[in-house]
């Protein structure tokens, strides 16, 4: 009986390769490389600003769904599940052997995702500021805080119909008084916002200008 000879394939040296690169090579995937721009020259230990940015994800119907972390957005692009709608002209290019894309600001799913219907948009500070356009509901100056029209100490609720964006001066002057007691009026009717984009606005205060075309009138 002949002795079988085992042949072992020699692996390439791993010196200079990160554990992440080794895992990607083993799985057959081509590791991604970031080609930096002048804006990223902030030192080896600094995290580039584009890494911390979020990306607007649109449904296949261009309906806004959510704001993704940059890493998740790039994964969707690499896997062919989404396409770039708008990129960041000042961002770097992300490249691999068969893939190249500039850092995106808006991407769109290739297939439609059904979103469960929810009747009422949750009220958050960010959404309230967007509804009132970051202006004081009493004087129209820049809003800095949130005020309860009917103070909570006098039975007012924490709801769309009783909360407004407010400047610090008006908030201090109004205190726990009713509007009828000080002769003030509201600049607009207080109504809950409607529309799918408001769910995104409820969790996102800073908006990329390229998102506005997809977020409706309330985001402007």
Automatic annotation (TrEMBL):
Biased composition (Basic residues): 1-10
Keyword Cell membrane belongs to the record: no
Chain spans, region Disordered: 1-40
Single GO term (MF): endonuclease activity
Taxonomic path: Bacteria, Bacillati, Actinomycetota, Actinomycetes, Mycobacteriales
Domain HNH nuclease as annotated: residue spans: 123-172
Pfam families for the chain: HNH
Official protein name in the record: HNH endonuclease
Keywords, ordered alphabetically: Endonuclease, Hydrolase, Nuclease
